Structure formats: C-alpha cells, structure tokens
Amino acid sequence: MLKKLGLLWVLFFSVLGFSQSKFVFPTNVKKDKISFKMVHNLVVIPVKVNGVQLNFLLDTGVNTTIIFSLSGIDSLALNNPKRVNLRGLGTGESIVAYSSTGNTVEVGKAINRNQRVNVVFDHTLNLSKRMGIPIHGILGYDFFKDFVVITKYTSKKLIFYLPEFFNYKKCRKCVELPLTFHNNKPYIPVRINDEAEKLFLLDSGSSDALWLFETGNLISENPKNYFEDYLGSGLSGSIFGKRSKINSVSLGKFSFHRSTVAFPDSIAFKNIDLFVNRKGSIGGEILKRFTVTIDYPSQKIVLRKNAHYKNKFHYNMSGLTVEHKGVEVVKEEKKVLLEKLSIPEDAVSIPMNTVYNYFLVPKYIVAEVTEDSPAYLAGIKKGDEIITLNGKKVYHFKLAELIEMFSSVEGKKITMKIRRGNKTFKKKFYLKERI
C-alpha cells in the first residue's frame, strides 16, 4: 500500500504523444487555491472529468493523465477511446488501456477542454484499498506545464498561478534548483553523501524519501545495514527491493541526515526505458518537509523549510502492510433514557431501554508481512483480518492512523486480535528499528 514508510505508487509511461491541450482560467482570474488531502505523504486533489467529481494523485513523476479506478462512480463518459498498451514499474507485463481524447478536466477554476486521458480497467490497479480513501487516477505533467504550482504541505493548500502573473519574492531561506526534463518528467540535482550532484526524478507520487538504482558501497553485509521488503505497486505489478538508511542527502544547502532509502530490484525495470542520467527518485517523505514551488515554464523548483523539516526518518517498524478490504455490518448497543419516575424518600428511578445501532465499518486485512519483522516473528500472516488494535476495535481507526502507529516509537507495544479463517488469535509484538 501507499504508506509513509515504504509503500508507494510510481508510474513510468511510454510517450504516447500529446495534443495541444491546455488548462486555462476564466477571464480575469490569475490564480486559484484549493485544499488537498495528504495521505502517506501524497497529495490527493479533487478533479472533475467530464463533469464527474473524482480524486486524483498529483504526481510530478507521470507524463500523462490516467484513470485506473471508477469504483463508486455511476457513470463516466470518455471520448474517442483508442486501445493502447502501457508499461510501468513492476514484475508483470504491459497492460491494456484506452487512450481517450477531447475530455474536459477541471481543477478548481482551471479547465482543460481537450485533455487526453488513459483509462485502465485492470481491477488489480486499485490504490483506494491501500490509501483508505477513493483514488481514481493520477494527474501530472498535463497540469504542471501550465502553471506555477505551490504545494503547502503543512496547511494542505495547493496554489497555482498563471506564469505571467507570478512574481518571486526574495527568500534568503529558500533553495532554488533547476529542472531538467526528459519525456516531460522533471529531474533535479541531488547530492548523496559527499559525491557530486546527480539527477534524480522529482517524484511527488512516491511516498518514500529516496530511491536509488545502484547500491554502490551503500549496502553492507557485515555489518548488515539493510532488509528486504515490499516497496509498493507499479503499473506492471509489485516492486520489491532493499531498504536502508543513508548518511546524507542534500538539495542545495538543505541536508538530511540518516534519511530512509530504497533500492528497487532491477527486475522491476524490465523493458523500461529509463533516462540514462537518472540515478534515482526524490519522493514525498522529503518533499513534505518544504513548501514547494514548482515552475515548469521557467524550469525551476524553489524549496522553503516548513514545520516538518526536522522530523526524523522512520520505517514501518511492525513489518505489516495493511489494506482496506471492503466493509461489514456492526451492531452496537446503546442504553437510552426513557423517563424519570419519582419514588418515596427522594430516590429517583431511571428506566433505560437498549437500542441497537447497525452501521457499516471498514475491514482491514494484512496485505504483506516482511520476513523477520516483529509482526512476522509474532506469527501474523498475510490475509489475517485485524479485529482489535491495542484493545480498541480496529474500525475506529483510519488506515492512515494505523500506518502512523506502526512507524511511531521504537519499543511501542502492539497488541492485536486477528481472525484467520474461523479462528481468532491474540498477538503481541514491539515496534523495532531494523537498521
């Protein structure tokens, strides 16, 4: 799942060609501001496609607009569909999609009346169950190319300007970096440890801090400084690799110590034409520590520290990947006051009646368990349904709250009641840093 400390969604599309479409504002409108949801370091914005309200990830790492889930949507008309094959990260093969042109896409007051959209009907490409909220698609280059976009991670506001009306203010506390483009994807210079700067994909659609494609001398067997893990899902299936920490990551004058880092297995890049100068990706776990101004027209990005800047980097210390698995009906009883009846000697009798409330609640199951992790050693298995967590019914938690708990404090005690088939079990473990 897409999670703060390990799960991510990264898509790399072949270049399909783009029509000369553009987002525009109504007359006399120069900028707009919308609220977004931040889920596992990812920005989720409301987007209308042909009049239908949807939720999209805002992702600098994609060069075309894609819809991959229409769950909960009664109908959505798409124009001029044409069958295409898409290929992305993962261990699977390419998948069938439909490229649709002439669509109307709206973000706040901005509107594009001739937008190309790629639609994937593969039901396995469903981010909603691992995000905890409906996610219908991804918007990237098609939006960023027309605006100067400011992402305020602390206030969860997205502000976007027409480039000709945006003025930069002097900011001594900011860092300005150039953007280099390849196949409509942005790359920025990043320095790892004391090495020279190299180009990394600016990937706001990745919840991880950092991806590196070459281990070099950063991985050690003795002492062992990594563990194998499930990294996330790509367009072509699951992505696995190694997780570790790195001494230093620098973007201009801003530097992070002991950042988390992932090294995806090379098989995930099978048949993918990567930019030859690209050394890795910078994702949401780092980007969320700044107010980020992305200016595609001027080919630059400006970073300003925010309240998240000094937060420590943590992995999921449980080893669990949890996902939403439908809903179930729950019955809860509640005592209701009927009336007060006075009786002798000033005593008061309060008759009560029991009322039963029935409501739908989310079910959470274990989607992955990392080998040798605390949860694994406690005997928790893939497919187990979580019933309670630390004595509380699990449906009282949002999925993001579960993930946050698993990456909170080393040594924290976790108690769980799980259902496996027709049996229930109680499990206990303690969160533990593995590197």
The gist of it:
Helices cover 6% and strands 48% of the residues.
Q: Quaternary state, please?
A: single chain
Q: Which structural category fits the helices and strands?
A: mainly beta
Spatial shape: globular
What is the percent of helical residues? Answer: under 10%
Mean pLDDT: 85
Uncertain regions: pLDDT < 50 for 5+ in a row? 1-19
Distance between the termini: 21 Å
Q: What's the alpha carbon Rg, rounded to whole Å?
A: 24 Å
Question: How much of the sequence is in beta strands?
Answer: over 45%
Task: Give the count of helical stretches.
Answer: 5
- Secondary structure tally: strands: 31
Largest sheet features: 9 strands, mixed
Kindly describe this structure.
This protein is globular. The two termini are 21 Å apart. With 435 residues, the chain is mainly β. The protein has helices at 128-131, 141-144, 284-287, 374-377, 399-406; strands spanning 8-10, 31-35, 37-39, 42-49, 52-58, 65-67, 82-86, 95-107, 110-120, 137-139, 148-152, 157-161, 174-178, 180-182, 185-192, 198-202, 210-212, 227-234, 237-251, 254-264, 278-282, 290-295, 300-305, 320-337, 341-342, 348-349, 352-369, 385-389, 392-393, 413-420, 423-430.
